[in-house]
Amino acid sequence: MELDDRKIKILKAIIQNYLETGEPVGSRTISKYSDLNLSSATIRNEMSDLEELGYIVQPHTSAGRIPSDKGYRFYVDELIREKENEVTEMRELVIQRVDRVELLLKQLAKLLAVNTNYATLISGPQYHQTKLKFIQLSRVERGKLLVVTVLEGNIIKNSIIRVDAELSDEDILNLNILLNNSLNGLTIGQINLDVITRMKEQAGARGQIVDAVLSEIAEAIRTNEEDLQIYTEGTTNIFKYPELSDGEKASQLISTLEHKELLKELLTEDDGAKKKNEIQVYIGSETQVQSMNDCSVVTANYELGDGLRGTIGIIGPKRMDYDKVVSTLRSLMNQLDDTFKKEER
Amino acid sequence: MELDDRKIKILKAIIQNYLETGEPVGSRTISKYSDLNLSSATIRNEMSDLEELGYIVQPHTSAGRIPSDKGYRFYVDELIREKENEVTEMRELVIQRVDRVELLLKQLAKLLAVNTNYATLISGPQYHQTKLKFIQLSRVERGKLLVVTVLEGNIIKNSIIRVDAELSDEDILNLNILLNNSLNGLTIGQINLDVITRMKEQAGARGQIVDAVLSEIAEAIRTNEEDLQIYTEGTTNIFKYPELSDGEKASQLISTLEHKELLKELLTEDDGAKKKNEIQVYIGSETQVQSMNDCSVVTANYELGDGLRGTIGIIGPKRMDYDKVVSTLRSLMNQLDDTFKKEER
DNA sequence: TGTTAGCACTCATTCATTGAGAGTGCTAAC
DNA sequence: GTTAGCACTCTCAATGAATGAGTGCTAACA
């Protein structure tokens, strides 16, 4: 038995109806509100087939049908025709970017949460591909050096390191020159033993400071790398959907969103195929995260001009409005692209 | 009619029992589990009096009694004898402080959330009392200056400003010297028109850069001031208490905790009397925040060595274990004090 | 005068029962 | 292949009885 044209139409009608109402949908409803002009009995037969094929399920005998994960998957893959879906307020927002990436990300997330009525999460960009642009040491007090590291895209990292040795102003100046000459333009990944050895040679007596500084830079960058910054917004939106908000489930879900460890996998798992602007949909158990088996997640990889890449995700009930979410995300990505291309000109 | 000794004992018994069970407590329970050796009938008479006096209420006829806000207030004010209550893991934690204040705060909050099983929130320190320690301008690229500001306590703020004028290395050096000479040791509040005018005079042709830098510094500091940093932890703990976790309430509460605007009031309202280490208890409607009328909030003002002050709060159901929470907070404050005094030696 | 036993009464909660409604599957007729 | 009709299933909401916890009051007691 195969999906013929009529079955597909019925399936689509079922899913769309369910997306709207959240109630199991019966044969009579489809018979009345579709343009197929078939009696409920006929629909029933077809539904029976669709169930056998695994696209829909019955919560219990004598209830209507609801889409299965497979059904949703088919719907998302085959039946959605994206429509344009402008994200409001986008324009004004992006203007403020430049040096406050986290702020921008948070605002983006909030924007999406408000626009879609689902929960949003966004991962901070990962920096290991990003080039060093500027490094500066300065002494703030005896025995403590301030290290300021600026990455492409004007991401700024600070840290304070303790040094036992006494450094003169001239020492610091020289170190600064050395650091900038040797490291600017490199990515973290490119700072290998070779580079380090060469620097140490040039630093002479100050070699150990070089070590400390380098590890501190690595550390500063890794800080956002390891415990990957993830921002969530609109988590309380999940209370809007009864199937997620009752009791235990809500608790677990909110908890998952609060403790970001699990989310990390969610946002980074498709690392290999991390194509820019590609939008992924994970339905139910496709997410691999236990507490999200009643949810769907839509993710997109963003890029902010200078190679700063991260992932943005929208979490909602399985019966989320995939169409709207996908097109909203797509539109957001495009607007981001536009804005950042313009800036670079 | 007044609270005599026996009434107090009964009230205490009622409250303690209710704190444990969360169920209305009846006369028979008190009669059995207190050392008063009174029959339930006598207790009933006393309870009737206590109700008339406003310390307890009946959810409905023929239910037991539960404490009223007034009852809790009396309990908190008069009946708690604090016991020592070490916060575990404290020691290892504080070591990491130094330059990552936000991280420390988050960890503290988490620690408290885990220790108490309530939700925790903590406000980042406010900086207007904090002195500038070090300022540095550097050029990262054409037309853009990086401003690094270090405050007492090694709080570091960065920002990037655009400058139209072309600045030589020497200009920058001079500006740095001027800035540090003029501003180091001052608090933001102390940077008045007088200081600014004097600096502009000295800067001569570069006066407008001084303006830009100063406003950027003010901005950088205000960023954490205005949209006051507030971190929450353990918000999902509220699901552990049925009286908070059912339906609408949980939603509103979590929402309040997510959108930090309202919390600001909560943490800063006692500004005037902001005595260090003072612990405040707000019961039910005493919090002024609508969505928290079923909660109690315990706050304490912390101080991290260098005059960095903020507030930490614990949010739980009205029947929270005040005793434990208060003593835990107290102990935490003491340990913080100890640690930071030691560091300063 | 304070304390207690006893009793009638109230109210929430639980459980089973019932009926309505929605929806199905199957069969027989078109 | 489509449809009307019917018996059947299951959920849900309403009903009401039983239960039990707890009270308030009264009368008796020390």
Overview of the molecule:
Two copies of one chain form a homodimer. Chain A is an alpha+beta fold and 345 residues long. The first copy, chain A, has three domains: 5-67, Winged helix-like DNA-binding domain superfamily/Winged helix DNA-binding domain (Arc Repressor Mutant, subunit A, Orthogonal Bundle), CATH 1.10.10; 97-126 and 229-344, 2-Layer Sandwich (Beta-Lactamase), CATH 3.30.450.40; 132-226, Enolase-like, domain 1. Helix content of chain A is 46%, strand content 19%. The first copy, chain A, is built from 13 helices and ten strands. Chain A has helices at residues 5-21, 27-33, 40-53, 69-79, 90-94, 101-116, 169-183, 193-203, 207-223, 242-245, 248-258, 261-268, 322-344, and strands at residues 56-57, 66-67, 119-123, 132-141, 144-151, 155-162, 230-233, 279-283, 295-304, 308-317. The first copy, chain A, has a five-stranded antiparallel β-sheet, with helices on both faces. A three-stranded antiparallel β-sheet of chain A has the order 4-5-6. In chain A, a hairpin with a 3-residue loop joins β9 and β10 (308-317). The termini of chain A are far apart. The structure holds a DNA duplex (30 and 30 nucleotides).
Which helices and strands appear, and what pairs or packs with what?
Two copies of one chain form a homodimer.
Chain A: H1 5-21, H2 27-33, H3 40-53, E1 56-57, E2 66-67, H4 69-79, H5 90-94, H6 101-116, E3 119-123, E4 132-141, E5 144-151, E6 155-162, H7 169-183, H8 193-203, H9 207-223, E7 230-233, H10 242-245, H11 248-258, H12 261-268, E8 279-283, E9 295-304, E10 308-317, H13 322-344
Antiparallel strand pairs in A: 1-2, 3-7, 3-10, 4-5, 5-6, 8-9, 9-10
Helix pairs in contact in A: 2-3, 7-8, 8-9
Chain B binds a DNA duplex (30 and 30 nucleotides) through helix 3.
